[in-house]
Amino acid sequence: MRNILFLMTDQQRWDAMGSSGGWVKTPNLDRIAAEGTRFSNCVTTSPVCVPARVTLATGRYPHNNGVWNHMPYAVPAESDSWMREIRNLGFRTSLFGKTHLHPHGRSDLRKKEDLLHSLGLDDVNEIGGPRASATGLSHMTATWIEQGLLEAYRADFKERFANKQYVVRPSALPLAQYYDVYVGQQAKQYLSSYDRDEPWFCWVSWGGPHQPWDTPEPYASMYDPDVMPPPAIHHTGQPRPKGKLDQMMANHSPNFEAGEVATMRADYAGSVSLIDDQIGEILKVIEERGELDSTIIAFTSDHGEMNGDHGLISKSNFYDGALRVPMIVRAPGVEYTGVVNDSPAETVDLGPTLVELVGGELNYRQFGKSLKGALDGSRHRDDALSEIAGEFMLMNDEWKIALNSDGETYMLFDRKNDPGEAHNLAGLSAYRSDTDALRLRILERIAQSQLHETK
């Protein structure tokens, strides 16, 4: 029986790996990609934490479950989940890090483990994200209290968000107690001492490289801001319908000073490399146990990070920086390695993939499509869907379209000729036929899932 290692980050762009973008050093993720399949056009089912993670866990899109935004929501304990199906197949399941499948702020996560047990996770050491850890409690914050670190962390966090949330400076936490190191080391210790008869499933879910830009040394100085890739350019363009993106541009676009975007990107790259080093330590433990050749490894992120693209930070929009995420699957024993599959994929596809790779099947209503048949490079999906705040995005090989909550097209990009998304073609009559076909396809996708819901 195979083991399963599920690696997940928070807010990692698709191009923030050596194998995908070349500007971040990620030798361990690159190794996994070289031994497996990297899906280069994977999109998050929602470019914001809560709906993305709820869809990942349940297989139901935001328009199915009604979770469209970053909101206080707890997945019902009786919900179907692929994690429970893996446990039912005989695995001992574990979670180290962030889930955001229930509200994290101002609560004690140690007292909320029953929900995660119900969803299929046996051994749990859950943390909040960087922001939630400044207000909520967990096993991790308990260690900060013991070492006299929590108040300094809270003060640092409060100052950042009261003044300039994208300020770049190292965390008030020492490297050994930094949240991403904590998560990696807890998973490493668990796997080092694992001695049960059941095969293991281990979900390691880091809080980074999510903002703030607080990477500790030596990673804070690992990258030179002067060699970071420049941000994607924003053009106002022709008159067109407006959507959530335009609200962000008007109300939340930082007034960057010279050099700030490059400095921010260098710190972000350091955060990704820190996590990659933690992944390397986990892989070493599995290798020392003699289990690497029998361990399935999957890696993804919940959504991306704009990092200055189009004058924005964070996520919550359908530009590539926020929308596209890494997706790597390594399945031992396959004949093909180092495959790059360019067909569209969605983060919701990961659950059924892991279940199928260990001989199971999801028999409840969900909308992920297993990637197993595409690990050799075969076509996976013709298009990918994403949703936020009543808006829909569809991406295929040639086009990306986004509809606002009134169903109007407010984003249209030619992916072949404008990969940097500099020229929004929405509203131009020359592309009306393409727009109509794409809008129809979105309606078909929604109708298909709603039809399944009624069966």
Describe the protein.
There is one protein chain. With 455 residues, the protein is an alpha/beta fold. The protein has a single domain, classed as 3-Layer(aba) Sandwich (Alkaline Phosphatase, subunit A). It has helices at 27-34, 49-58, 62-65, 82-88, 113-119, 139-146, 150-163, 179-193, 244-251, 260-288, 320-323, 350-357, 432-454; strands at residues 3-10, 37-43, 92-97, 123-126, 200-209, 295-301, 327-330, 339-346, 384-388, 391-395, 399-403, 409-414. The strands form 2 sheets. Strands 4-3-5-1-6-7-2-8 form an 8-stranded mixed β-sheet, sandwiched between helices. The protein has a 4-stranded antiparallel β-sheet with strand order 9-10-11-12, covered by helices on one side. A hairpin with a 3-residue loop joins strand 10 (391-395) and strand 11. Helix 4 (82-88) packs parallel to helix 12 (350-357) and helix 8 (179-193) runs parallel beside helix 10. The longest helix has 29 residues, at 260-288.
Query: Order of SSEs, N→C?
Result: EHEHHHEHEHHHEHHEHEEHEEEEH
Number of DSSP-assigned strands: 12
Task: Provide the low-confidence segments as ranges.
Answer: none
Give the overall silhouette. globular
Going across the biggest sheet, name each strand in turn.
Answer: 4-3-5-1-6-7-2-8
What's the CATH topology label?
Alkaline Phosphatase, subunit A
Sheet with the most strands, sense and barrel status: 8 strands, mixed
Measured as a percent range, the helix fraction is 25-40%
CATH class: Alpha Beta
Beta fraction: 15-25%
The CATH superfamily is known as Alkaline Phosphatase, subunit A
- Structural class assignment: alpha/beta
